[in-house]
Amino acid sequence: ENPNRYYDSNKIKTTKYTILTFLPKNIYEQFHRFANIYFVVIVLLNFVPVVNAFQPEVSVIPVCVIMAITAIKDAWEDFRRYKLDKEINHMGCYIYSR
């Protein structure tokens, strides 16, 4: 008998995201880093007129650039994982039989 008879498929999936969940999951993961939270708080403080050091709009740019670069990097890594999963899932395999 087939040892995998109780399973629908033997596919692996190592990707974190789908197209629909990429943006919310990635933002959630990025705000779990203390440095990102710290810099967003600094940006928000810069919008307070008493403590602002320079134009508040300018302080948003570096944080957005860093988060966008990180999101692009995460998307690229996840796409590479997807391609490798697809390659492995389409390989032939041997079925054990007694």
Order of helices and strands: HHH
Quaternary state of this entry equals single chain
Please indicate the percent range of residues in DSSP E strands (runs of 2 or more): under 5%
Instruction: Please tell me how large the radius of gyration is.
Output: 22 Å
CA-to-CA gap between the ends? 8 Å
Helix-strand makeup class:
mainly alpha
What general outline do the C-alpha atoms trace? rod-shaped
Total number of beta strands? 0
Q: Helical region count?
A: 3
Biggest sheet, open or closed, and with what strands and sense? none
Low-confidence stretches: none
How confident overall, as mean pLDDT? 88
Helical fraction: 55-70%
Protein name: Putative phospholipid-transporting ATPase VA
GO cellular component, one term: plasma membrane
InterPro entries: ATPase_P-typ_TM_dom_sf, P-type_ATPase_N
Organism: Chaetura pelagica
Description:
It contains three helices and no strands. With 98 residues, it is mainly α. The chain has a domain of 64 residues.
Features:
57% helix, mainly alpha, 98 residues
Q: Quick summary of this structure?
A:
The chain is mainly α. It contains three helices and no strands. The longest helix is centred in the C-terminal third of the chain and has 34 residues, at 56-89.
Q: How are the SSEs ordered, and which strands pair?
A:
Blueprint: H1 22-30, H2 34-46, H3 56-89
